[in-house]
Amino acid sequence: MEEQKFDYSAAMAQLEAIAKKVEDPETALDEVDALVSRSKELVKQCREYLRGVKEKIDSLDHE
Predict the structure, then answer these.
(1) Angstrom distances, CA of residue 36 to CA of 14, 18, 26, 56
(2) pLDDT value at position 3?
(3) How far apart are CA 31 and CA 27, in angstroms?
(4) CA neighbor of 6 nearest in space, from 60, 44, 37, 38
(5) Angle subtended by helix axes 8-23 and 29-61, to nearest 10
(6) Cβ distance 15 to 39 under 8 Å?
């Protein structure tokens, strides 16, 4: 199976949508719980992506 490329912009857009949904008083508590769990996963993926980008930049500085 081919590894899917991480889309940082899409992840950030999804995090923004999650934040709006969580702030909406019409959102059920169970849904808020699921949204918070999803946001934690997205934040983890974003951090890993940014770490990888930083490592690439750092390696360019040492060439």
Answers:
(1) 12, 8, 16, 30
(2) 54
(3) 7
(4) 44
(5) 150
(6) yes
Contact in structure between 42 and 15 (CB atoms under 8 Å): yes
pLDDT class for 35, splitting at 50, 70, 90? very high
* Percentage of the chain lying above the pLDDT 90 cut: 81
**pTM for the structure as a whole:** 0.82
* Residues 45-58 as b or e (16 or more Cβ within 10 Å = b): eeeeeeeeeeeeee
Report how far apart, in Å, the C-alpha atoms of 49 and of each of 2, 23, 35 are: 18, 27, 21
